[in-house]
Please model this.
Amino acid sequence: MFIDSHCHLFYPDFHSDLSEVIARAQQAGVHYFVVPATNHHTAEEAIRLAEQYPSIFVAVGFHPLDLKEYSEERLKAIDALASHPRVVAIGEIGIDYFYDTSPREYQKEIFARQIELAVRKNLPIIVHTRESVQDAIDIVIACAEKFPEWRDDGKRGVFHCFTGDAQQAQTLFEHGFLVSFPGPITFKKSTMPEVLKEIGISNIMVETDSPFLAPVPHRGKRNEPSYIPLIAQKIAETLNISVDEVAEATTANAIELFRLPLQTT
Model:
């Protein structure tokens, strides 16, 4: 069994065939989905999907590219939504220096504010980075040290679509964070397989980031959760282990991090 730990199933790309997308995923062995919102509107949409589909769990928060939607009142709305029983994380939150749609200091400020929300709710975070990995690491470590009571099991979050190096990954592991890999790990020029060889399977998850970042041989097309086995196959080949071992480890990690009410068997 696989869990797609990051897929945006509320996107318009899936409005016409979401039931079929979910059915294809389940036929491929991908039985559960974590759907991170990007603002207060998509948080409501994601929760509606989770109420319709028992296989969907939700994260709520403001994506760094959606900070034009942010306000104190809307953060209060996210705070209220975070109490919904299908919400398992605060996310997708973080920092994005590639597009720079908001001032960098403002991005960091709102990122930290949302981590404080996660601390209050005792939820893990789902972190977005683009050309900002080290700054995001510095912020999450500072918050983890400031709030040692955050998550009594020490599992505090995941850096999704990880693009850092092995040393950065190890630093994250030491502070209770996982990393996850989507379709680009299958791309010919990706450097992530080399990072993966150094960090191993113990602290990773798999994701599609659907509808974006489809793996080879679907690169450039709409991504969907049924492609998770392609990512798992690349990870298995890179680490010289079986796909079943990838499924077992990544599923267990997702269940533990998000405290999903599931069994691994």
Notes: The chain is about 40% helix and 15% strand. The longest strand covers residues 87-96.
